[in-house]
Amino acid sequence: MTSTELRADNRDSYWPDDWGLLLSAFATAYGIGLLSLLALPFLIGSAMATLSLNAAQAGMLSTLEFVGITVSSLTIAPKMDTINRRIVAYSGVLIALTANILSALVDSYEMLTMLRPLAGIGAGLAMACGNATVSNSKNPERFAGQMSVLCVGMVILVALIFPRLSANWGLSGIYTGMVVTIILMAFLMRRLPANAGYNGRQYVTDVGVSEGSSKLPALFVLAAFIAFSLRDTMAWTFVERIGTEVGYSSIEVGNLLSMQAIIGMIGPLIASIVGARYGLKAPVSIGVFLSGVVTYVVSQSSGSQLTYTVAVMCWAGTYFFTLPYLTALAAEIDVKGRVVAASGSALMMGIAIGPAIGGELIVAANGYDLVGLATIICVIMTYLCVLVPLVSLYKKQSYQLTTIND
């Protein structure tokens, strides 16, 4: 029995069942939790220009923030079935808001190295609670896809607004923009559930399955998220550099990335429409393969502007098609929301180490050959890691079907 058959009453509804729940989850997980990642290209450039930092120093500010996100979200994730998520999420908002206000007021690199991890801690608390909300939905696959559609829309807005803030007010303008964004997102969080909601799905994951038996699939899901984001970030960090090597100016690369975000809306739209109609195995496998092909081609396209352009245009679409299904897989194996909450931490872990690993490989090979090889390895690792929870989920669904028939 597939996830679709278990939720047949919802399979033909392509629109959100609960707009309030969707907007709350999106605002908490992406609008606040991943805001610093969406603004990363502009934060790096603005920090270097405003504070006269080198690339390593500017990158360290983001690394410290991502570490804060990873640690706080991973710490709170195991408690998702017992804590009041709404209180934790709003506490994270308050922490992130305070840290960003102070960041906008200071012009000291040393002070920012203390404030950015604090901002990350707040963002991580919010992100974990927002991601856990996927488990409250009737159709996690479709719900996660709809969240990604909203996220791509936010990417477009950030790409349009934040460069102008940087041009007029420098790094302070960027942090002020983040403050305003967090406040606006907080207004959308009013429908965030305080507790785990099963919505009739507990029998899919819990019947006949011991607590210990679900730990291995959970660990493999988190490993899949790490490999997935590591593969993506190794190439994304240097996408502008590769673009300049094929003949684009930095501004032209920026315009290209804005266009690919708009085109990339197709990916999560497909995921949100298809939902669980074809189960999880086929969409996850296709997504992992296609997103891997795109980043591999980009990493090896420094000699061809056409190849680079075509591959970049497919980037957001394949990424945001795959991510909802990985998120839904995490939600399916644990309806209490602990695994899907921790998935954000795993995603950030890959994001945090990706630039460093990619940079070392580029230096070692004096080019992008090793990045391409590492991309292939990460694709294989991602697929192998998702097989374990997919098999576990199939067994649980088969047990449920057998129980019903008996």
Question: What does the model show?
Answer:
The chain is mostly helical and 406 residues long. Mean pLDDT is 82; it is low at 1-12 and 198-213. Helix 8 packs across helix 12 (250-263) and helix 14 packs antiparallel against helix 15. It has helices at 3-6, 19-32, 35-38, 40-51, 55-76, 85-105, 109-132, 140-187, 202-206, 215-236, 239-245, 250-263, 266-274, 281-299, 305-313, 315-333, 338-365, 369-405.
Please give a handful of descriptors for the protein shown:
406 residues, mainly alpha, 18 helices, globular, disordered N terminus
What does the secondary structure layout of this molecule look like, with pairings?
Blueprint: H1 3-6, H2 19-32, H3 35-38, H4 40-51, H5 55-76, H6 85-105, H7 109-132, H8 140-187, H9 202-206, H10 215-236, H11 239-245, H12 250-263, H13 266-274, H14 281-299, H15 305-313, H16 315-333, H17 338-365, H18 369-405
Helix pairs in contact: 2-7, 2-8, 4-5, 4-8, 5-7, 5-17, 6-7, 6-8, 7-17, 8-12, 8-13, 8-16, 10-14, 10-16, 10-17, 10-18, 13-16, 14-15, 14-16, 14-18, 16-17, 16-18
Q: Could you give a short description of this structure?
A:
With 406 residues, this protein is an all-alpha fold.
Q: Number of helix segments? A: 18
Which percent range describes the beta-strand content? Answer: under 5%
User: How confident overall, as mean pLDDT?
Assistant: 82
Radius of gyration over C-alpha positions, nearest whole angstrom: 20 Å
Shape: globular
Helix percentage range: over 70%
The chain-level structural class is mainly alpha
What are the secondary-structure elements, in order, as H or E? HHHHHHHHHHHHHHHHHH
